[in-house]
Specification:
210 residues; mainly alpha; Vanadium-containing Chloroperoxidase, domain 1; 0% strand; PAP2/HPO; UPP_Pase; PAP2/HPO_sf; undecaprenyl-diphosphatase activity; membrane
Length: 210
Amino acid sequence: MLRTATAMYFIEVKNMFQLDFKLFHVINHLAVSEKPLDPIVAIFTEYGQYLFLAGLLFYWFYPKKKNRKMVMEAFLGVCLAMAINAAIGHFFYRDRPFVHHHVYRLIPHAENASFPSDHAAGSFVIAAAIWIWMKRDGWVWMILAAALSISRVWTGVHYPSDVLAGMLIGIGAAFIIHCIFKRLPKLNEWANRLIEFYENIESKVWKKTA
């Protein structure tokens, strides 16, 4: 009975990997069928993460206290997501698609851990943090995060399951951090004090330069 269950498990895992690779092949083949878009996709997959960082800076300097709390949660969420990714990548190491397969590779990349995707986790944790506080803005960032994640497969550096796992980790990390702040009033109070401390310094700097 145990032997049969084990065999069935490995068959299911094998089927999942096969499905993952088939989906990878479909998306990665867009590099050939939609070749005029390749330069745009390559630039976006390389530098799209900076768009999310620029977004956080915009919200931080947009004069609303709740925006700064949102950015603080997003920053902590990114730290949590990257820590989870690093742990998973260490214990469940998976090579990049281009290591063992012929792929259409549009960007250079180190042969390091593929699973889960840092780009997907980082972009989705920021998008989710924004969505928690501002639904309308959040949906826009969610779409951008999805586009960035797909671009990682298009350019041949990730499997679909890599970016799917990164998405789940990123969204999960954003909600975990938000729940921690909601359930720990003392932590929320410290965050408010830190923001007020920063705003006092900021106002003094602006007065001196005015």
